[in-house]
Sequence to fold (222 residues):
Amino acid sequence: MITQVYGITSIEDALGSIAAGADYIGIGVRSDGVSFEKCRDIFNAVGDKAVKVAILDFVFHNEDDVLKAAEELKPDILHLSGSVTTSKAFFERFRKTLPDMKLMQAVPVSGPEAIALAEERMRYADYLLLDSVAHGGAIGATGASHDVTIDAEIVKRSIIPVIIAGGLGPDNVAEAIRIARPFGVDTLSKTSINGSRFYGKDLNKVRLFCKNARKAAEELGL
Fold:
């Protein structure tokens, strides 16, 4: 099982999170105050020490711009958060344009209807990320949790790896893993300074998150 740490805004936080146990590190380009140039510098510093994930459709709202930006930044995984959503046509184009990159599609989990939505999207992605929904419909970066039993049902049905997110931190990640048994877990707000992605990571919280996640996964044989 993998741990994914989002809200990375500096080389120090990226390398510190990796040292603390993060397998994947995530950047919300521009939305987290991270410019293209800074994101590139962070990714270069990380190299192959961790899997590099980028959200680009917070600021680019059409497929052409998202794919162009992904080609420029070269993350290992392009994470679609809702402004652009995968489809058969998009996934085929993505595979042709960026054959060495993987695609992670966010799924908003506000109720049981997320199960059917996930089943539709899993056909056109390499990973699903299940996340909470903010007021207004935005996906993720809310610090809010959701019903993890819905995540568990999606994990059972999924044909691709599933990462669960949504208010996960050192205090509740083990229980979420026991319920959902996912491929991976994601943290942002609960391992960030002052609970905000704009202030960087609290590396002690990142370390405890990764430790608690791994212990729970080992106990379950994940």
Remarks:
- The chain has one domain: 2-220.
